[in-house]
Every structure is written in C-alpha cells, then in structure tokens.
Amino acid sequence: MAGKYDKSFLEHLCDYEQGWRFLFTFSVGFLGLSVIWLYAAEPGSPTYVVTVMNVVGLSVLSLLSGFVLARCR
After folding, report:
1. Are 58 and 29 in contact (CB under 8 A)?
2. Of 67, 59, 69, residue with least CA distance to 34
C-alpha cells in the first residue's frame, strides 16, 4: 500500500505524459484557428463573443498542459 503513495502529485501527472501532449497539441491548434477566426468575425456579433471565450479558455488550457509537460522533462 505504501508504494501507491510514494510519488508526488506531479509524478503521477507525468505518468500520463502522452495524454498531456495530445491535450497541448489540440489546444494550441484550435487556439491558432480561433485567433484567425477572431479577425474574421465582426466585433460585437455573437460569433465574436464565443470566439473570444474560446481564445481565453484555450489559452488557459494550453498554459496548464504546457506547464505540466515542461515540468515532466
């Protein structure tokens, strides 16, 4: 039972590095597409508001997954 708790939380997260890498790649890819769409959408429209929310959310997700990947190396 002691072997289950002998690793830190970060080490447990690093066990899923492939998943974190997929999440990071997905987030950055869609962030890039959302930034392009941000310039194409008309400011003030509902599409623009949703795109801004996507950019904010994907930025946070990219930073979180990037931080975990950087700490795992």
Report:
1. no
2. 59
